[in-house]
């Protein structure tokens, strides 16, 4: 089937959100890059405007200083300006040097109206007419101020370099020198010459490039963090929903299994109820005929003994079925567990095959149904006695587990198979040839009806260990 990101998969409801998050990343990243480009261009334009304004102020200051401190005094003293004279040239050089000091001016020239260099920071350029170019001609004809950037050999590398080499970006300014008007005139004074100077703006350009890269990096990082957060939240929500889906499926399976077990239990209870009365008649009749048989060793006596024993076993199985299928609501009275343990130990220890010890001291009280609790403890002890070899030991002792009172039954048998530990309480599961698989299941249902818990484990020294935990505090 062709992939369609807009088709929602019930198993993965965040599939569409994941697609939209990826699309959002592209949109956010594109918008961020566009915004970064706009901001970078704005910053670059502001940087160039700032440098042009600074160059304009510097040119006006030079014009003022040259006119006030050189032109006027020289005209008053000598009648005219003649830069070929050494004293006038040196005086102009002093004025210019004091004005441009610490302003990162690289070169400075002054042209006359014919485009000839009459003053230069590099003396060997004086007298040349090929350095001014069109900008000087425009300043003479139209009094136009010209500013232009000059880059090194590789323009693209210089523009993108966060740490450009010194003098890799030069700002050239051409400014018409004029006499300042007096108080009686408001129009510009006569043209005195053309001023040209260059400034190194490489460091400022590097600062701008670093700022541009910072904006770009911040945009990328913010987009990546936003996308990562969205992906993390979506994956976490997906895992939570997947876990809930698995839990729902497990509960549904358990519900179906419980319904099957409930149906089977009702059926078994009905059948067992119908079987119990005829089975009781067979059992009592076999016992009566066995007692009347004159020769206990005869074939008929052995057959009656077999009928009696099997009917007795089947009667016990029927009773187990009925106890499991129709659990009784417990009557919550005060019950002494010491007395219950004493009764069970006394009854099960009559044959003397194994040794049973009751280490529960009286009184050891809990609230519950005495008959049901006796049945639960009896089933656990009967299993322990059956699993213990001849001459072994079965112990009943008090227990405090996680602040709750209980009983612990330990035997000296082989213990539980840890791989099957969770299956021992399943109905009809048994590892014994003569067992029904309902003993521990009945115990668990009785404890659950009392708000308690059945815990199966193996003792550290060997043998099985069964904890009957109640909701009573220790």
- Mean pLDDT score, rounded? 80
Rounded to the nearest angstrom, the radius of gyration is 54 Å
* Name of the CATH superfamily of the largest domain: PAS domain
Give the SSE order as H and E letters. Answer: HHEEHEHEEHHEHEEHEEHEE
| CATH level 3 topology of the largest domain | Beta-Lactamase
Low-confidence stretches: 1-8
**Relative helix content:** 40-55%
What is the CA–CA distance across the termini?
Answer: 63 Å
Number of helices: 9
* Strand percentage: 15-25%
The structure class reads alpha+beta
Strand count, sense and closure of the main sheet? 5 strands, antiparallel
Give the overall silhouette: rod-shaped
**Tally of structural domains:** 2
CATH classification, class level of the largest domain: Alpha Beta
How many β-strand stretches? 12
Task: Tell me the strand order in the biggest sheet.
Answer: 2-1-5-4-3
What does this structure look like?
- The chain is built from nine helices and twelve strands.
- By secondary structure, the chain is α+β, with helices and mostly antiparallel strands.
- The protein folds into two domains: 198 residues, 2-Layer Sandwich (Beta-Lactamase); 144 residues, Heat Shock Protein 90 (2-Layer Sandwich).
- Helix 8 runs antiparallel to helix 9.
- The longest helix is centred in the middle third of the chain and has 91 residues.
- The protein starts with 14 loop residues before the first helix and ends with a strand.
- The relative contact order is 0.07.
């Amino acid at each position: 089937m062709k992939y369609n990101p807009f088709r929602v998969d019930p198993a993965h409801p965040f599939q569409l959100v994941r697609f939209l998050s990826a699309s959002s990343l592209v949109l956010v990243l594109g918008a961020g890059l566009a915004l970064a480009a706009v901001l970078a261009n704005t910053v670059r334009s502001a940087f160039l405007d700032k440098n042009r304004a600074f160059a304009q102020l510097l040119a006006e200051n030079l014009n003022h200083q040259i006119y006030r401190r050189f032109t006027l005094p020289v005209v008053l003293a000598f009648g005219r300006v003649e830069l070929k004279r050494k004293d006038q040239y040196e005086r102009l050089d002093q004025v210019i040097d004091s004005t441009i000091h610490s302003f990162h001016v690289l070169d400075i020239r002054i042209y006359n109206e014919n485009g000839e260099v009459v003053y230069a920071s590099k003396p060997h350029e004086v007298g040349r007419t090929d350095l001014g170019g069109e900008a000087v001609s425009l300043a003479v004809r139209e009094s136009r101020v010209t500013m232009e950037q000059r880059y090194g050999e590789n323009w693209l590398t210089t523009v993108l370099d966060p740490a450009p080499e010194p003098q890799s970006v030069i700002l050239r300014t051409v400014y018409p020198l004029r006499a300042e008007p007096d108080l009686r005139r408001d129009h510009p004074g006569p043209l005195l010459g053309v001023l040209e100077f260059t400034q190194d703006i490489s460091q400022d350009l590097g600062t701008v490039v670093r700022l541009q890269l910072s904006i770009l990096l911040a945009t990328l990082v913010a987009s990546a963090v936003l996308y990562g957060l969205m992906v993390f939240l979506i994956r976490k929500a997906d895992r939570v929903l997947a876990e809930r889906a698995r839990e729902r499926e497990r509960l549904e399976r358990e519900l179906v299994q419980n319904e099957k077990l409930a149906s089977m239990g009702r059926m078994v209870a009905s059948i067992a109820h119908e079987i119990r009365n005829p089975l009781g008649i067979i059992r009592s009749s076999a016992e009566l005929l066995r007692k009347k048989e004159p020769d206990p060793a005869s074939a008929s006596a052995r057959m009656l003994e077999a009928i009696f024993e099997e009917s007795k076993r089947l009667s016990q199985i029927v009773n187990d079925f009925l106890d499991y299928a129709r659990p009784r609501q417990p009557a919550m009275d005060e019950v002494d567990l010491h007395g219950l343990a004493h009764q069970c130990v006394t009854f099960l220890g009559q044959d003397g095959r194994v040794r049973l010890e009751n280490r529960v001291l009286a009184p050891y009280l809990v609230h519950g149904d005495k008959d049901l609790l006796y049945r639960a403890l009896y089933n656990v002890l009967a299993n322990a006695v059956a699993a213990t070899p001849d001459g072994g030991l079965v112990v009943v002792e008090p227990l405090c587990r996680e602040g709750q009172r209980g009983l612990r039954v330990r035997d000296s048998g082989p213990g539980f198979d840890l791989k099957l530990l969770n299956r021992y309480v399943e109905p009809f599961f048994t590892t014994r040839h003569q067992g029904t698989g309902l003993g521990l299941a009945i115990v668990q249902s009785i404890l659950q009806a009392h708000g308690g818990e059945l815990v199966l484990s193996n003792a550290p020294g060997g043998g099985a260990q069964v904890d009957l935990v109640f909701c009573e505090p220790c």
